[in-house]
Amino acid sequence: MCAVDLSRGTAYLVAGAVKRGRRAVCGTFLICKDCYLKGTPAPVTGRTRSQATRQTSRAWWIGLVGRGAVLAAEPCLACGLVVVRRAEKLLRG
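-> C-alpha cells emitted (93 positions)
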C-alpha cells in the first residue's frame, strides 16, 4: 500500500484488490502496521472508518484474511517475516 520495506516490521495479511490497467485483480497481500491501523475500526467508539482510509490509487483492502480470532504475530515458516492473520485451518502455511 505505502511501499515500505516490510522486512523490518510486522506485516498484516489482508484481502483486497490491486488495479492492473483498467481491471482490478482480487487477492491477498501484505500491508504494514501503519496502513492497517489507519483502516481498522476506531478503538474508542468501535465505528468503522471510511473506505478512503483503506485504499490508495492502485490498491485497496477489506480486512484480515481468514475467519476466527486474530492470532498473535508469528514469523512465517518459509521467510521469517512476522505476519498477523486470523486463525483458519486453511491458512496454516
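The first strand starts at residue 10 and ends at 20.
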